[in-house]
Amino acid sequence: xxxxxxxxxxxxxxxxxxxxxxxxxxxxxxxxxxxxxxxxxxxxxxxxxxxxxxxxxxxxxxxxxxxxxxxxxxxxxxxxxxxxxxxxxxxxxxxxxxxxxxxxxxxxxxxxxxxxxxxxxxxxxxxxxxxxxxxxxxxxxxxxxxxxxxxxxxxxxxxxxxxxxxxxxxxxxxxxxxxxxxxxxxxxxxxxxxxxxxxxxxxxxxxxxxxxxxxxxxxxxxxxxxxxxxxxxxxxxxxxxxxxxxxxxxxxxxxxxxxxxxxxxxxxxxxxxxxxxxxxxxxxxxxxxxxxxxxxxxxxxxxxxxxxxxxxxxxxxxxxxxxxxxxxxxxxxxxxxxxxxxxxxxxxxxxxxxxxxxxxxxxxxxxxxxxxxxxxxxxxxxxxxxxxxxxxxxxxxxxxxxxxxxxxxxxxxxxxxxxxxxxxxxxxxxxxxxxxxxxxxxxxxxxxxxxxxxxxxxxxxxxxxxxxxxxxxxxxxxxxxxxxxxxxxxxxxxxxxxxxxxxxxxxxxxxxxxxxxxxxxxxxxxxxxxxxxxxxxxxxxxxxxxxxxxxxxxxxxxxxxxxxxxxxxxxxxxxxxxxxxxxxxxxxxxxxxxxxxxxxxxxxxxxxxxxxxxxxxxxxxxxxxxxxxxxxxxxxxxxxxxxxxxxxxxxxxxxxxxxxxxxxxxxxxxx
Length: 671
Ligand SMILES: *[C@@H]1O[C@H](CO)[C@@H](O)[C@H](O)[C@H]1NC(C)=O
Ligand SMILES: *[C@@H]1O[C@H](CO)[C@@H](O)[C@H](O)[C@H]1NC(C)=O
Ligand SMILES: *[C@@H]1O[C@H](CO)[C@@H](O)[C@H](O)[C@H]1NC(C)=O
Ligand SMILES: *[C@@H]1O[C@H](CO)[C@@H](O)[C@H](O)[C@H]1NC(C)=O
Ligand SMILES: *[C@@H]1O[C@H](CO)[C@@H](O)[C@H](O)[C@H]1NC(C)=O
Ligand SMILES: *[C@@H]1O[C@H](CO)[C@@H](O)[C@H](O)[C@H]1NC(C)=O
Ligand SMILES: *[C@@H]1O[C@H](CO)[C@@H](O)[C@H](O)[C@H]1NC(C)=O
Prior knowledge:
This protein has helices spanning 4-23, 288-317, 320-328, 338-344, 387-399, 430-435, 437-440, 446-466, 496-501, 522-527, 532-548, 562-571, 589-602, 613-621; strands at 28-32, 43-47, 50-52, 55-57, 73-78, 82-83, 85-86, 99-100, 103-112, 122-128, 158-163, 175-180, 187-190, 205-213, 218-225, 236-239, 249-257, 264-274, 334-335, 353-356, 360-367, 372-379, 408-414, 417-423, 481-483, 489-491. With 671 residues, the protein is of the alpha+beta class.
């Protein structure tokens, strides 16, 4: 069931993607400039710490509450670990340098004390192996260690402390220090030399930069008052190989404590960037399983997803209710394979492109063996809605047979692509003949134009009235009227708008296809619905277009639309001036006048005032006289839209099949 080509594609894709994932490592980075409750799932609060007042409160912040601020401690850690170093293959040999991640941690702190508080104990930026928290870490232990743990190498803690309380091992009560597994710092620097008071009586914010270079193993700490530029020299600089002290995967965050003396330990902002070490360096280590396992899992996932997709597709396509119904009908169009259509159109050669519509591109195709020429409509995938709806609709379209409708020869639905195969129309679209551009424009003779309109009218009458399941064309315009080798007109693409997009018509595509503009009835602008009346409106636009040789949306003599100009000529009794100049005198006055009046009547702003398809056909064939058209174009009045007049088409599969023999509708003849 699985074509090998697709499997190979999937494997290739997986192999292609995996190295990209593992090599293209971006540093892990985040930036918080205000903290709120929603960040509880990003940060882990330990001890008495909380996220409150827009800041990380590492120790209690409830100044006014009736709780003691003394002797408490806490931590807030980013809840995901970072890989900070790499086991190197030759680490035993000792030649190759250790791979250690560089990182930058920049934070804004506010260490507040009220007048009368001495300030204590301190706050620290900490790297820790897990999210645990030692009890009894208040006072001098800074939330980092406690009496029993202090100095234990298994702590795997490295911290930068900002200490506001002097202990016997400290230089003063206002210093910075580098701590390794102990609050007894390996290096301390008094900040008083830098004009910095960590917890001043007048509150100040300080920005602190902790920068670690994994190559040089140098840790630099810069500190200055908020808003001041980063100083050129660090307050503390120490070489430390983190690999010797911290866990390979470590957490980062803040710890703080109070003692007899208290202060508020707030982190207001935090930016962190940690270099991402590639996992693939683990090839020779114990992590070899990851290197092999991950692509295999990805591969399996891709295969599974693909199989599921394929199975679902098959299930839809094989639905006996739809395809079966299509196939079982007598004289049904055939199903083509995508490969055959691709071959017939020379791989959808741009040179064989016949046109482009709202729903896709049409190509000419040739089946040399059978010596058949076809038009292949390839739908753009985004436009596809429910495929069952579409096929159900096609089954209705399939049953329509009329010599002035373009015949559907077959369809293809494979790999999510949909194509329809129509009879090839050697003379292209009416649109091309009227406005074919520089090369194409050959003036259509008058009798030819008249006959084309008669053909279209008979097709419209068939769609609206003669078939059991009344079909609304929905997209009547010159580019949908095709001409066969004898210049017989054939209406194409009927019903497709609905089939493709359920309730919507191609009105929805006005932006992309301004050409549809003049063909849309005013009421359809409002409702977005197509009705028989709106089809008649479109037909009226085509009639005026064919007689005048102008696009419906052409601005002439100050009129916004062709129809308004013709209406003004009608009012002034010189309507024949509207006839296409390129015809010269080669047209029949009576017929031209009749068609222009018909065109105006069909363009009536009120749907129910427009003639019906049957009357249109009778007028064109001469069994009914030209319609009466008022001198002024009536206004469009929304309120009088009446539901009975606007008989929407509805497709119900239960109606008896509509197989009308050819010719029954052409009760007229034109020479
Ligand atoms: C919390 O902060 C995030 C940004 O980090 C923001 O998107 C969100 O709206 C904030 N929530 C509240 C309640 O302020
Ligand atoms: C505040 O706490 C003290 C003892 O810690 C207690 O005596 C006092 O009643 C408390 N006041 C209030 C309003 O809870
Ligand atoms: C840290 O900052 C320094 C200078 O500001 C920069 O050169 C370095 O690339 C940064 N490192 C990381 C890991 O972002
Ligand atoms: C220090 O912390 C550890 C871990 O939480 C705990 O088991 C131990 O009892 C603590 N020691 C003191 C003196 O509180
Ligand atoms: C830091 O100090 C501890 C004991 O205080 C000592 O064991 C360790 O070697 C020192 N580390 C450095 C990098 O100085
Ligand atoms: C500290 O920074 C915060 C946030 O930028 C600001 O709201 C506050 O006013 C600052 N405090 C001082 C004393 O500058
Ligand atoms: C670390 O230091 C080396 C040597 O000074 C430098 O080339 C490199 O860019 C630094 N790395 C980072 C991330 O700052």
